Amino acid sequence: MLVLEDLHAGYGLSAVLHGTSLEVKPGTVVALIGANGAGKTTTMRVASGLLRPARGRVLLDGKPVQGLDASRIARLGLAHSPEGRKVFGPLSVEDNLLLGAYRRLPRFLGFRSRAAPDLDRVYDLFPRLRERRRQAAGTLSGGEQQMLAIGRALMARPKVMLLDEPSMGLAPVIVQEVFRTIRRLKEEGMTMLLVEQFAKAALEVADHAYVMERGRIAIEGTPAELARDPRVLAAYLG
Ligand code: ATP
């Protein structure tokens, strides 16, 4: 579904990715873990077209998409829920969600009614968002904003979702709620690449995992294999 091949990328003169490769098979959850600054967010930004790689390929459904605009890649089925959530604070919860469907549905008459089934699905997944749908997104709690960011990504009916640190800055009980949602999306067959500091939780939900160190994949395997690896135990699960 999503294949990253030998990606090299960076910011100006500073190279961050030095040949990153990974694969997310349809219907699976893949976890990408690693220390701060290893290049996980950069990997996601290259996958979704926010950053152009100097070298390497991004294949979505077998088709190369590296070099295309982020909006084009989004239309082809990749949704990115960025680190730090980035909801549109002054807009209502519902308008934030509708923005997620904006690229998929042409903006003529009936946009709202055509997006209604998707809104319903997101509200079923996150009843709290339904209660607060007229509220400005900026006034939501951190956990609610995270749910909104995931909900907005879902509105695009993506084939693959990239979730960057969905637990960041959240209280433990809210983190559990976010992971319950990820598990439920997985049960519905959603394909996801998950970047997470909270390695234990990520490995519990993932089918396959990669550990990134200094811009390269250092270790990969099933969660069970990684959980037995002394390097992973010492650095991420200790
Ligand atoms: P974290 O877990 O802390 O989010 P990460 O693995 O996601 O880390 P990246 O955010 O990909 O790491 O950052 C990798 C490196 O690239 C870091 O050294 C960071 O300082 C640098 N970097 C990230 N964004 C920029 C930018 N816009 N301009 C310059 N350097 C950047």
| Mean of residue pLDDT values | 92
How much is the radius of gyration in Å?
Answer: 17 Å
Bound molecules: adenosine-5'-triphosphate
Helical amount among residues, as a percent range?
Answer: 25-40%
How many β-strand runs?
Answer: 10
Task: Please report the number of helical segments.
Answer: 10
Domains counted in the coordinates: how many?
Answer: 1
Shape summary: globular
**Mind describing the biggest β-sheet?**
6 strands, mixed
**CATH class term:** Alpha Beta
Structural class: alpha/beta
CATH superfamily: P-loop containing nucleotide triphosphate hydrolases
Strand order of the largest sheet: 6-7-8-3-9-10
Under CATH, the topology can be stated as: Rossmann fold
Please give the alpha-carbon distance between the first and last residues: 32 Å
Overview of the structural elements:
This protein has helices at residues 40-47, 70-75, 93-101, 111-125, 127-131, 142-155, 172-187, 199-205, 223-228, 230-237, and strands spanning 2-11, 14-24, 29-34, 55-60, 63-64, 78-81, 160-164, 191-195, 208-213, 216-221. It is an alpha/beta fold. It has one domain (2-237): P-loop containing nucleotide triphosphate hydrolases (Rossmann fold). The chain is globular, with a radius of gyration of 17 Å. 42% of the residues are buried. The model has no long low-confidence stretch (mean pLDDT 92). The structure holds adenosine-5'-triphosphate.
Core attributes:
238 residues, alpha/beta, Rossmann fold, six-stranded mixed sheet, four-stranded antiparallel sheet, 39% helix, 26% strand, binds adenosine-5'-triphosphate
